[in-house]
Design goal:
It is built from 17 helices and 22 strands. The chain is α+β, with helices and mostly antiparallel strands. It has two domains: 366 residues, Glycosyltransferase (Alpha/alpha barrel); 221 residues, Beta-galactosidase, Chain A, domain 5. A hairpin with a 3-residue loop joins strand 4 and strand 5. Helix 4 packs parallel to helix 6, helix 6 packs antiparallel against helix 8 and helix 14 packs across helix 16.
Length: 602
Amino acid sequence: MIAELIKNIKKPLSCFQPYPQASKRDQWEALPEDIKEQLIRNGEAYLNFDYPALTAVDFMEFTRTGNRSRYEDKQFLRRNALDNLVLAECVEHKGRFLDDIINGIYVICEEHAWQLPAHNSYIRDTPQLILPDITRPVIDLFSAETASVLSMAEYLLRQELKNVSPFLSVMINKNLEERIFIPYLKEHFWWMGDGESQMNNWTIWCTQNILLSAFSRDLPEIQKEEILKKAVKSMDYFLQEYGEDGCCDEGAQYFRHAGLCLFNCLFLLNEITEDAFSSAYEWDKIKNIASYILNVHINDIYYVNFADCSPVAGRCGAREFLFGKMTKNKELMAFAASDYQSSEDPLTLEEHNLFYRLQTIFTHKEMMSWDKTLNITHKDIWYESVGIFLSRDEHYCLAVKAGDNNDSHNHNDTGSFTIYKDGFPLLIDVGVETYSKKTFSPERYEIWTMQSCYHNLPTFFDGGMPILQKDGEVYRATEVSYQFGPAENRISLELKSAYPDERIRSYIRSAVHKKGKEIVIEDHYEGSLMSPVLSLMFYEEPTVTGDVISIGNLGKLSVTGAANIKKERIPITDLRLKTAWKHDIYRLLITMDHQDIKLIIQ
């Protein structure tokens, strides 16, 4: 696919210069005054900044205790500080921030490793080494991201750094060569792809940052060509993971590291080749990948979510807007611009990819002036490649997962559903807690958020032992059928294969969205195990009165076929979960009376 477009290159590869260096003042001076003032204030917060120490013991903590956030927080803070200082200097251009910028460049170049402790291994799914081998750099998500941060900083302030000392750029280039370019060309890291192994957002995210690092400087032509050829192969391996419908099986939150990184790869390749890759924007798959984020949006901050994805997946901004522009999708542009205008953090202060910040700064004016009257449609859709069913009307959004338990960032959630009413969560998917060593380990499914009993799914019992769904491609929905119509949409699926017990002969779930009226969920069980217990997850507290459940002030749920209903409060203490759920959540455990249960949501 992408690799075939190399034949369109007619001239030597040029350097990537999409935004002006600080020494080219016209475009920096032309930025809106409020943006310039804010960028300077952001930089002033880091004047005389004491960059946090990163010790060997900090690095070892992940292996010893499983905690990954304390090391990562300090590493990310170093890069965030540098970004803010660089942008402030680009705007003000008086040298006031240069000393702190140079300190930041030095401490990052002094780090013995740029990869995270959680990624400190050479082979996929193998135990991490307790400390890095400095003779063999690992290129992971954040070593590649660090390379792009340093590259963009050096590119923007090349002349200003040279005026202090030419050895600053020499130091950055030496680090990039030894830590990134040489291992990239000589080693095979799993995320590069081989045409057989399963890829995920790592493939395109790392590739994007390799390209940003390599083509923002004047490397030898032969080295540029080798990097480009290897990069486009990885892009194709990434695209092989997608169906033609463009659905991201990792969810909206990870789309920012998947589909949007694909866009930036294409954007960069076109910039350095005089649009040799521009025809890719006309491909249906690329257009569908771009529009995915609009299709899974529910309302305001909320998105359809399954697996590790949070329902609060972040605001759209410049990258979504520009992807819409390149694929001629005006609805996506309007959606991204509108969301950006509502953003609580339009300049993305928590983002440490400096290039993303540049995209935001130089697209800000266009997004803020975008016509708000353009109609944005959230349509009904069936994503066959992943098995996601979406049905909407003026009040409800119903999402059903009808795929398998082999998604990237998988939860055992096949057959689960979520419902939003008037833009607010009614029946929910919890998401994932803060990453720890256990999150990506053989013990992953010991974590409660990953288990089917904490999704809107049945649990079976053998005596007192619960039988839950298992992970893997064979654990899947079968006999899936769906129908869209003007008055109602429906889906039916068989869930017996999602559970590892042949005594479950059948568990058929059907969901019917009667537009403008209600949603009906009906489950039918056949088997030799006792009647299952259905879990239902809520954000607003459910109040049970007989067979009628009031869900806060949002709506009601009527139950037919319940022998018993028990309510549990689940405290939300994890910081990552707190970004989506500001208070505790609730679980109802509904024991089925016999074979059938019916839920009517109004």
